[in-house]
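tool=predict chain=A
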Amino acid sequence: MKKRNLFHFITAGSLFALFIFYTILLQSVDVKPIGPNGSLVGFAAVNERLHSLFGVHMRLYLITDWLGLVAILVALGFAVLGLVQLITRKSFLRVDSSILVLGGFYLLVIASYLFFELYVVNYRPILIENVLEASYPSSTTMLVMCIIPTAMMQLHQRIKSKNRRVVTNSLFGLFTIGMVVGRMASGVHWFTDILGGALLSVSLIMLYYSINRWLVSRGEDHLGEV
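tool=predict ok
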């Protein structure tokens, strides 16, 4: 393996280790019952202060919830692309390698979400329909920050027109930033939930990027134009 590829994988592993360390700290530093029904929250002073600063805006919560469907539709679009390639090329092995890696990446994102639904680190700062829901890491933040940047990587390779690439990726980038900021400002998550979602997303994206660059170095990538 080339040194650059090794560096990419080490970076991905380091980011994931940082996420784990951060999660451990969240369960041991300044843990206080500041949540609904006396639920415990780490980094309580920071979380409580920022939650008071932003307040709760349910309309913004609903808007960001619905806009999360955009990310899901993007993921479905690449799933359809992979299915079309499978049908037309009549071989699983002839599907673009980056699409296969993307499919595995999506499964890893889903597995991460399900894990933290079962292993609850902390709950939301508000009740949703009188229910105390798991809040760490922010699933909407993770959904958008995982799907949209990887879509940008895919489209950057597939769109041959520079102007189209710039416009498409700029819009996707602004959408991602807006969703993360909107989710934070809505007040339905603690600040540490948003940060945790971002950290996990970056580590997963780096793993996706590392695998793709490794395949490129081996000459195993083959992409079609969009």
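The mean pLDDT is 91. Residues 3-217 form one domain.
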